[in-house]
Predict the structure.
Amino acid sequence: MPISPLELATHGTEAVVTVHGDLDIAYSVDVLAVVSAAFSQRSLTALTIDLADVEFCDSCGLGALIRVRNLCRDHAVDFRLANVQPRVVKVFTLTGLTDVFTLT
């Protein structure tokens, strides 16, 4: 059985969204939908998007992450990107977004 491209796990008031595959135009809207579902299910204090399995991120993926970051900021939710692969870090560096996101 194939792995879903997005998984949501909640632990108390913290949520982790794990992305499998490319974060591109095909899944950027889905990321926003999963994050919105996490916000509607509970009062969050922290949200992590795990990018361990992401080797490619296009402008639509970046746009989705920026929207998620802004949503978290507006709701006083700590936000970070975890396990960002070197190829994806390069995209953040080239676009100047390393100052905008917490990358771990």
User: Anything to note?
Assistant: The CA atoms of residues 54 and 99 lie 20 Å apart. Helices lie at 28-41, 59-74, 86-94. The chain has a mean pLDDT of 92.
